[in-house]
Amino acid sequence: MQTLVQILPIAEEHIDSYRRCLDSVARERLYLALVEAPPLDSIRAFVLSNIARGIPQFVAVVDKEVVGWIDISPSSTNASDIAAN
After folding, report:
1. Is 44 left (phi over 0), alpha (psi -120 to 50) or beta?
2. pTM for this one?
3. Which of 4, 26, 34, 73 is deepest in the core (most CB within 10 A)?
4. pLDDT per residue as tens digits for the range 30-65
5. CA 47 – CA 49 distance, rounded (Å)
6. Which residues are paired to 7 by β-bridges?
7. Which tens digit of pLDDT belongs to each residue from 7-38?
8. 61: which DSSP letter?
9. Residue 84 CA to chain centroid, in angstroms?
């Protein structure tokens, strides 16, 4: 039986599940600088701010549970500044 993975723009309904997924990955202490997810209120503010500002953030969802994510946050660093260093 194949697992259906949906890639969706993050929505308010994904916030709790997104935090659980983030917390799980953070506790692995391998891929993130975090060792646990921030509080739910902070996650909610981050996600809702991204949605309001149109910042791309997508989640991978299996059976209504977030199993992965990506967000593309703008940087104040100019690419030419990085290349010059």
Report:
1. alpha
2. 0.82
3. 26
4. 988 899 999 999 999 999 999 999 999 999 999 999
5. 5
6. 60
7. 999 999 999 999 999 999 999 999 888 999 99
8. E
9. 30
Element at 65 (helix H, strand E): strand 65-71
Long-range CB contact pairs, 17-23, < 8 A, 24+: 17/59, 17/61, 17/64, 17/65, 17/66, 18/43, 18/47, 18/59, 18/66, 18/69, 19/43, 20/65, 20/66, 21/59, 21/65, 21/66, 21/67, 21/68, 21/69, 22/69
- Do the Cβ atoms of 59 and 18 come closer than 8 Å? yes
CA angle 39, 45, 48 (to 5 degrees): 135
Query: Which tokens belong to 60?
Result: 């991978």
What are 14's two structure tokens? 């994904």
The Cα–Cα gap between 24 and 28 comes to 7
Report how far residue 38's alpha carbon sits from residue 76's, in angstroms, rounded to the nearest whole number.
Answer: 23
